[in-house]
Specification:
heterodimer, A: alpha+beta, 2 domains, 11% strand, B: three-stranded antiparallel β-sheet, two-stranded antiparallel ribbon, 50% helix, 10% strand, elongated
């Protein structure tokens, strides 16, 4: 059995780990506001989760990259970009983009939604399993931003005026927002509630 | 809290008694699962992790202060080089196109996508640099054993909060993907800024590896107390002489 700070009548700072009597509201060591369990956490998780999902839809529908050469012009969505890489035989890079832009974002929506429901309704997975899932989501979520940087590099590099240019598509904005919103959703989650009963 | 060297965990009752008997400033709660631990005395390279969720809690390093400061300074200099020098050079049939890191940031600056340019600039240049500068602000005044500058705690808290938003290493993976995409179209030559950015990513990894938050928080706390004339400065991990190797 483990004693938690809350069971001991204390409140812990999640920023620096210092422990204080339950009636203290600000950590005297690092200045962070203290709360034994954040009552608004789940509400904020769902708010960011929904916002992230809403902007993830246009991110997949609208073009990410607009390529113009002398005799043709093409628009590629996220999935289209992966397929194009595959057709050129760049399997490894296609896999990197697929994992970063499709697998991680979709997996993140499922994982955060699952964790929030699991804490509210209780128990489809062991505490250790949920803890590990949250740690993975927090660690891996930011890597989805790769595709936005790919677009930035390509658009700034490929500028042969009339001959060939690459321009960013509007999907880059909604995709970047989606990554940021789901990162905020994962950060809003209070992992301490996984272990409470 | 446990050390890897300890094989037998404390029996539960003994653990509870230890937690109950310890003074408040020796107690730490795991930020991930709220489990309460008594802070152990650790030497450099020893680590303590949470007995329940196994999150790493304390990992002091020897000569941490001077190493972190050196690495943060190096990273800041590399960042300045990466921003100012040419990054990539594209050649195709006698035509030239070159891009700096700032060009990549400005890729979205036309039209409705301008806010994304600000965001990209923040994620790959401003936030990584700000984080390093904040770490220097907190640690540099403490190098000679002195007291931290005002608001050091706030600065260090902000530096930690910025960590997930500092995306220099993700940018470099994006560059690698972009290079593969362009490879069929034209030949690309990396410029000095490219190598500076690679170095920056490596140095940042080392920097984060040497950084132990608990030691730094303890140092800030005890030295602020000492500067106010309270406390004895005994629990200052960064003031301890380096153990082991003597020069």
């Amino acid at each position: 059995m483990t004693v938690t700070a809350r069971q001991a009548g204390l409140v812990a700072c999640t920023r620096c780990g210092r422990v204080w009597p339950a009636d203290v509201h600000t950590c005297a060591r690092c200045g962070a506001p203290l709360s034994s369990r954040d009552p608004g956490a789940l509400q904020r998780v769902w708010a960011w989760w929904i916002a992230g999902l809403v902007v993830y839809i246009p991110a997949n529908v609208y073009p990410m990259l607009i390529t113009r050469t002398l005799n043709y012009s093409s628009e590629a969505t996220i999935l289209g970009g992966v397929i194009e890489l595959l057709s050129h035989g760049d399997v490894l890079v296609a896999l990197v983009v697929f994992v970063a832009s499709i697998l991680i974002p979709v997996g993140k929506f499922i994982a955060i939604g699952f964790l929030a429901l699991s804490v509210e309704k209780r128990r489809w997975m062991s505490e250790h399993g949920q803890h590990r899932l949250h740690a993975v989501v927090e660690f891996i979520g930011r890597w989805s931003m790769i595709d936005v940087f790919v677009v930035a590099i390509l658009a700034s590099l490929v500028r042969f005026d009339a001959v060939a240019t690459i321009n960013p598509g509007i999907a880059a904005v909604s995709f970047a927002l989606s990554v940021a919103f789901t990162m905020l959703a994962a950060q809003s989650f209070d992992p301490r509630t996984i272990w409470d009963d | 809290m446990r050390r890897p060297a300890d094989t037998a965990p404390l029996p539960d009752r003994a653990k509870m008694a230890a937690v109950a008997g310890a003074p408040l400033e020796r107690l730490r709660a795991c930020p991930h699962c709220d489990a309460l631990h008594v802070l152990p005395d650790l030497g450099p390279r020893e680590r303590a992790s949470c007995s329940r969720c196994h999150a790493l809690l304390v990992a002091p390093r020897s000569r941490a202060l001077s190493r972190i400061i050196a690495l943060a300074l190096t990273a800041l200099i590399l960042m300045a080089a990466a921003v100012m020098m040419p990054f990539l050079d594209l050649t195709e049939a006698g035509m030239h196109s070159r891009a700096s890191v700032m060009d990549a940031v400005m890729a979205f600056s036309r039209g409705a996508m301008a806010p994304l340019s600000i965001a990209v600039g923040a994620l790959i240049v401003v936030i990584p640099a700000l984080r390093l500068a904040l770490v220097l602000y907190v640690l540099a005044p403490m190098l000679g054993g002195g007291a931290p500058w005002p608001r050091a705690g706030q600065a260090f808290r902000l530096a930690n909060a910025l960590k997930p938003w500092s995306m220099a290493e993700i940018f470099m993976i994006g560059v690698a993907v972009a290079l593969v995409k362009v490879a069929g179209l034209a030949s690309v030559t990396p410029g000095p800024a490219f190598w500076a950015f690679c170095g920056l990513v490596l140095v940042t990894v080392l920097h984060d590896n040497v950084m132990d938050n608990e030691s730094i928080w303890q140092a800030i706390e005890t030295r602020e107390k000492a500067a106010r004339g309270e406390g004895d400065g005994k629990t200052d991990p960064l003031a301890a002489p380096p153990r082991g190797v003597r020069a």
